[in-house]
Amino acid sequence: MTIYDATVTSKGQTTIPVEIREKLKLKPGDKIRFIMHGDKIYLRAKNKKAADLAGLLHDPNRPPLSLEDIDEAIGEYLEEKDQRIKDDWHRHQRST
Which portions of this protein are annotated as coiled-coil regions (predicted)? Predict the structure, then answer.
């Protein structure tokens, strides 16, 4: 786990560290999204348009998913991701 610090200006602005910009492939003008899930905040790059993803996951043999199935899958993913982050943090705390 790597931790990056940044400062927020009086206008609520900050600079995203270069390593994060490179990892997210952010370019000037790209959008970012902040996702709140409980007491956790996630940062996502919004540098893809939905049109760029059209047909990416298309499988004519797979039945369509309901919105409930999709919501459940997203929730499960976020729970697993949250647990991985917690586990990584605990390992980091023990190693310092």
Answer: none
Q: What is the pLDDT of residues 12-46, one digit of tens each?
A: 999 999 999 998 888 888 888 888 888 888 888 87
For 24, the 3-state DSSP assignment is coil
pLDDT (0 to 100) of residue 11: 94
Q: Is the dihedral of CA 6, 11, 12, 13 positive or negative?
A: negative
Task: Report domain 1-49's class.
Answer: mainly beta
Cα–Cα–Cα angle for 70, 72, 74, nearest 5°? Answer: 70
Mean pLDDT taken over the chain? 84
Query: Are residues 43 and 32 in contact, defined by beta-carbon separation less than 8 angstroms?
Result: yes
48-70: per-residue pLDDT in tens? 665 666 666 677 777 777 888 88
